[in-house]
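Q: What would this chain look like folded?
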Amino acid sequence: MASAVETLIRSTVTKGIGKVVEFNQKRMKSDEPNPYLYGIHKPMDAELTLDDLKVTGAIPAELDGRYIRIGPNPVTAPNEAAYHWFTGDGMVHGVHLQGGEAKWYRNRWIRNTPVAKALGESPAPGPRNGIRDNVNTNIVGHAGQNWAIVEAGGYPVRIDDDLNTIAYDNFGGTLKESFSAHPHIDADTGEAHAICYEATDPTTIRHVVVNKDGKVTREEAIAVQDGPSIHDCMITKNYVIILDMPVTFSMKTLLAGHSFPYKWNPDHKARVGLLPKNGSNDDVIWCDVEPCYVFHPCNAYEQDDGTIIFDACAHNNMFAESTQGPDSSSVPFERWLIDPKAKTVTRNVLDADNQEFPRPNEALTGKPYRYAYTMSLPAGFDTATFEQTKIYKHDVEAGTREIHDFGESNVPGEFVFVAKDGAKAEDEGWLMGYVVNTASETTDLVILDAQDFEGAPVASVHIPHRIPPGFHGNWITAQ
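A: My prediction, written as structure tokens:
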């Protein structure tokens, strides 16, 4: 549990604390280059608009919209000793598909305060929540808008269909505090559910619901300890699943000058919370689980006997040593059986190979499903030198796995599922994502037939430069 002194300091974080951090950052030095600023991670230094894109194969004509992904891309060279991959300025990369053609590729920085200053512009309008206004983790379409989002303090940012920043927007003034990088849409209601936390509040997280009109209808406080980092959550028919894991805020790390102040905390109990969707703090069913860390669930659903199936990529630990990026050594794809009556969690490995970014057909979020799509990771989970070339399709009913290997030097990111119009089968649709060729320093937007997963791509849109590995993105249909 955080000491009384630490709690007091964190509850009154001010510009004065920021000055201390800034002072210590300037003093930090390293003899080794930061791997998240070189090689495949080297930031882009300009915004581009490319209209003449070559395509191999045939882009499905019914795809009308934009594949958009966001990730870190510092606008100015940071102090390498202090830089963490998760803290770079947000840059959006998108490809517009329409009528079987690739209309354009564009990349644009989110106009936070440091980016605007570096580009000689005014910062984006709209309210801010706290000192930092960087948004770099996910792009989602909801309530007729494109939202760039982040956790731990920042408000969402609306961007237009050409990827330009419109404004910071706390859902029209209905969001009181921070949002999340991972809201999940309830297909039955159109509501987006998220578990949100403030870096400055170690004792409270919040269940936030944004309705289909883009207004917050619920912001329920849930009590926690130590300031846990809760990157994602999941929903079922009746519950929101809370992942309270042993990665917590570290005042020592912050004051030392590191830009990402979260560390592995073995003294923090790992637990899973089942919050009824309309329940309060007193209604949460807490279930202990073996220590681990989950960035990304794939899906969850309730069984007839009341137990819950929860599928996720589970790291053996996180941020135990590194102050630059993720550092676990094992991240298998697992299935957890959560028993709300016994308050237990039983973990079983579905696939022992390292993998991340699990995605289902998200029309089935919170419901029984069969197929999960994940990105392979190299042995030892080295995100600094990404070299994996495969993605996986899991049949969680049959217990089988298919592999799509893009070949030597071709490094895929997260792939997302896009259903065909009128699809009847769960996997009737396409998978799409960026694949970087580290030899040619180019990138393809690759479209696969999900039902012919191991077959040749349906189409590849060729982008004549390297897009640095980002975090999350989505296919957003034309408005």
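Helices lie at 4-11, 15-27, 113-118, 251-255.
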